[in-house]
Automatic annotation (TrEMBL):
Sequence ranges assigned to domain CHK kinase-like in this UniProt record: 131-321
Pfam families documented for this protein: EcKL
Gene3D superfamilies, per database record: 3.90.1200.10
Name of the protein this chain belongs to: CHK kinase-like domain-containing protein
């Protein structure tokens, strides 16, 4: 059933689409349905997404059925006003229309072919902006349930492809062959300071419920002290670079935006979706975000270093394939930078990860500040304590690690974390 945002999807629209993009002639639409898809739709979706089933006939084809997915900029209902002012959907259009084709062109020059996303059938601008994608479940791709977290194998595969994505973007930025000006702002930016109340409230909720979460009083006090300069420090970390090295980040790189494909029991590929929060910056944006929001808690505890190594190996090999002559970060430099910028990771872990790891009860996060409505804060106040209790073990484990590496001491005595950074900088890995 069509909704207010998909009324334009009718027999004429479908006939023209199939004739133009599927190579059929004299198409006659017999029946069609438009419905929210279980695997694309979620509490975190910031657009109108629907699966379309079409039964049709054409010359040489008595009857056939096709399915595809539409992602449409809302013109009615929730977030329609915000989308009118935000450039987030335009970002996504640019990724699929300009950026990804440039990636493929560059890869072809070095004899590589890597699919990063589902195939795009069509991009349109009337009566609203929208994208039509292939139905990737037809090719065996599926998302995973976010509450369980990703396995080691799934995490490695996702990070391998992320490393390639980042590397290609760095090459093209060095060549100035694509316009990425629109991707200057992500979740944390000085222009969004007035939109940071969600993060302040989510952080306060951790501090205020420390006893119930099993957080000892010493760490609770450090969290309280850290809050006095948290947002400026996180903005500084988010907008940094690794010795000048920057990439195009996905910006919302977590379980719900990654599709996995298996052949039998073997994981063979992953695809990414939803680039509305794509942003130029340090690759740690995606790396921290993925590690905190998506990897199974036991895998993160036992294999964090291996995951970082896998990402770096993929990044480095791809840069080498292109003959990249910029300053590519070494594994040591990434590890040192992860310590230096760990305030960003802490904020991801405490204010975003619990809510992205927990599908119910619903709490919409402010990962896209330009689309965050003040009334969403009530969801956090109503359900935050429940979500935090469900993620108690994760929160405890993260805070213990942050305490060990000195992240929580960064507001006062920086000697501890500086000492650890210096040991990494001089170590041979």
């Amino acid at each position: 059933m069509s909704n207010e945002n998909t009324k334009f999807i009718n027999s004429l629209f479908l006939k023209n689409l199939i004739e133009e993009h599927y190579g059929q002639k004299e198409v006659k639409i017999k029946t069609y349905t438009v419905e929210p898809p279980s695997e694309y739709g979620s509490a975190y979706t910031r657009a109108s997404i629907n699966r379309v089933f079409v039964k049709y006939s054409a010359i040489g084809n008595n009857e056939d059925i096709i399915t595809f997915v539409t992602k449409v900029k809302p013109t009615k209902g929730e977030l329609s006003d915000e989308f009118k002012l935000s450039g987030d959907f335009t970002k996504e259009i640019q990724v699929y229309k300009n950026v990804l084709p440039a990636f493929q062109k560059a890869l072809k020059k070095v004899g590589e072919k890597i699919d990063f996303t589902p195939n795009v059938v069509s991009i349109f601008t009337s009566p609203t902006d929208g994208i039509i994608f292939e139905e990737v479940t037809n090719r065996g791709y599926h998302i995973q349930f976010e509450k369980t977290g990703l396995t080691f194998e799934q995490s490695i595969q996702a990070l391998h492809k992320l490393g390639k994505f980042h590397a290609v973007s760095a090459v093209l930025m060095q060549e100035s062959s694509i316009d990425l000006e629109r991707f200057a702002k992500g979740t944390f930016h000085n222009d969004w300071k007035s939109k940071m109340e969600y993060f302040n409230e989510a952080y306060r909720m951790i501090v205020d419920n420390a006893n119930g979460l099993g957080i000892d009083s010493a760490i609770q006090q450090k969290l309280r002290d850290f809050s006095t300069r948290a947002i400026p420090k996180v903005i500084e970390d988010y907008t940094s670079a690794i010795k000048g090295f920057r990439v195009l980040n996905h910006g919302d790189f977590f379980t719900k935006n990654i599709f996995f494909k298996y052949k039998g029991n073997d994981l063979v590929d992953v695809l990414f979706v939803d680039f509305q929060n794509a942003v130029i910056g340090t690759p740690l944006i995606d790396l921290f975000y993925f590690l905190t929001t998506s990897v199974a808690v036991n895998v993160l505890a036992s294999s964090r270093d291996e995951l970082i190594y896998a990402y770096h190996e993929s990044l480095s090999k791809t840069l080498e394939t292109f003959g990249y002559n910029g300053t590519a970060p070494t594994l040591n430099e990434i590890q040192v930078e992860m310590l230096k910028r760990s305030s960003m990771e802490l904020y991801f872990a405490l204010t975003l990860a619990p809510y992205l790891r927990t599908p119910e009860p619903r709490v919409v996060t402010a990962v896209q500040p330009s689309l965050y409505k003040p009334e969403y804060l009530q969801q956090l106040k109503n359900h935050g304590k429940i979500v935090l209790s469900q993620n108690k073990d994760f929160i405890q484990g993260q805070l213990k690690r942050f305490d060990v590496v000195g992240t929580l001491d960064y507001t006062g005595d920086e000697g501890r974390i500086r000492g650890i950074m210096n040991r990494f900088a001089t170590a041979r890995i």
